[in-house]
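ok so i was messing around last nite and threw this chain in just to see what happens. nothing serious, just curious
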Amino acid sequence: MPRRSDTSAQNSSVGGAAVSIRALSKRYNGLDAVVPTSVEIESGDFFAIIGPSGSGKSTLLGMIAGYIDPTAGQIVIDGRDVVPEPIYRRNIGMVFQNYALFPHLTVAQNVAYPLKIRGVPKDEIARRVAESLGMVRLEAFAARLPSELSGGQQQRVALARASIYKPSILLMDEPLGALDKNLRDEMQEEIKRFQQEMGVTVIYVTHDQQEAAFLADRIAIMRDGAMTQIGSPRALYEHPNSRFVAEFLGEASIFPLKSVSAGRAGEARQAVLEGGTPIRIRTDAEAGPGSFACIRPERVTVGPKAKALDNAFAGTVRESLYTPGSIRYRVELDGTGLSLKIRVLPQADMEFYEAGSTVDIGWSADDMSLLKE
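result:
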């Protein structure tokens, strides 16, 4: 993974820790909440964990934080296994969805609390509170109570409090889940800016795929207590390794494969979908029972130019929707019973196809992914 710029690193006042999770697992009453899991997180990484409810992501975060005891495995932070250590010795900050602010304390007092219980001198506390509130742009709100702040402002206070004692790792568990869309978008910008300025390692749990893709250097997708795939947002979206990942991380048209012809590495191969529709796909992977072909909606071309592509079909528009920023179609391929999701960017003089229109659609063999179940 490309690292952040040297300028960001030089401006950082914290410095993130490297985290090595080694065969970490958790069982409750004989059931696996997290199966043995291993992953390396580099210093300064923004590492997101996503997955459906019950996939184990919050349990994994709780074990790293120290408030859930692992059944087995190691959590190595900068070369030291912290599993035997209590929470307060791990130098980890935590930001929760519900903010967890003290309602009777002012903003400044909330932010100061971690330093106060550590016995930091008052003048040092005052200096660092001012510094932390400056980082989240809340200097003018120091004397207010949490009830006098918006949800986004309360989350900024929680972020300042979690980072005031300069932890090497920040853990965030659905930190924006209680905010409306506009505030979520604003806070995503704030969190990304804050993390890049601090240089801290962030491990971030969310159910929002777009949020994870915007924020993270790498994403782990969890299912049934296991990390099914880890990679950059782009790599996961463009090269999912399973049907589950493809469907979880954005829209896709996915079709069962009947067969894929043999071929040399790097060349497009002839394939046949269940039902007999021929397609071309570029892949070096073997396609056996349970294999699927996947195409993302923005990779499909609509209109006369589609005829020149590797996979070209005539079709009928069954659904047509114009939304801000994109046009969405569902097109049924003539004579196949198959339908594709299509998304195109509106452009000047672009033809808009109403439901019932006949259109040409197509896509390149390079834009298809071969998936396993």
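not much to say yet. Residues 1-13 have pLDDT under 50 and may be disordered.
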